[in-house]
Design a protein that fits this description.
This protein has six helices and nine strands. It has 202 residues and is of the alpha+beta class.
């Protein structure tokens, strides 16, 4: 694997957590020997994990389980030959056509039955995560302090409440969430709301 593929695969995080099998451990260890700069990446990830552990008294993010499952799926896709990409940054000028490549991929769909949420990563870059997210009912309150969250609605409708202001969103609508302000999502359509989600490091 190349340096960028290792960084984007999620293997470094799983390596530190001790969740890799023998073959995957060998891949990471060879990469650490081949690319000494990965040591800095590991140190940064470890520091982040420690900071998270220190805040463990707070409840874990509501989407943590779904993100872990999406990470495993994305890692498997890369191992099976998928080439990492860098999708466009979401802005108020973005359109669904900009993401047609992923919106029309036959493997980028949820299972027929899923719980409240389902996530498929489009790309997991060091400073930017881009994903397709399906919500059946909504997502609970959360506040971001270190990443900018952006939404582009692909299917269905939802209300996103930021502070005390409600935004009614339909397919093609874009919304950026400001830092340090509580927000929540409520699906308003009979079908799951399909969202192109992007989180960019602040």
């Amino acid at each position: 694997m190349t340096l960028s593929e290792i960084r984007e695969s999620g293997l470094l995080e799983l390596y530190l957590l001790g969740h890799l099998n023998e073959e995957e451990n060998s891949i990471v260890q060879k990469a650490l020997f081949q690319f000494p700069e990965l040591e800095k990446d590991l140190n940064k990830i470890e520091k982040t994990l420690i900071q998270y552990t220190e805040r463990i008294s707070a409840p874990p993010p509501s989407d943590l389980e779904y993100i872990i499952m999406a990470t495993i799926d994305y890692t498997a896709r890369l191992e099976n030959g998928e080439i990492p990409v860098s999708p466009p940054v979401l802005t108020h000028h973005s359109t669904l056509a900009d993401y047609k490549e992923w919106l029309t991929r036959p493997d980028m769909v949820p299972p027929e039955e899923f719980e409240e949420m389902f996530i498929k990563f489009i790309a997991h870059e060091p400073e930017k995560l881009t994903a397709l997210v399906w919500l059946k009912n909504g997502a609970p309150d959360e506040t971001h302090t270190d990443e900018h969250e952006k939404f582009l609605i692909a299917e269905g409708t939802c209300d996103i409440t930021i502070g005390d202001k409600v935004h009614h969103l339909s397919p093609g609508d874009f919304l950026a969430i400001p830092l340090h302000i509580n927000h929540r999502v409520m699906v308003t359509s009979a079908i799951p709301c399909k969202i192109i989600l992007q989180r960019v490091a602040a």
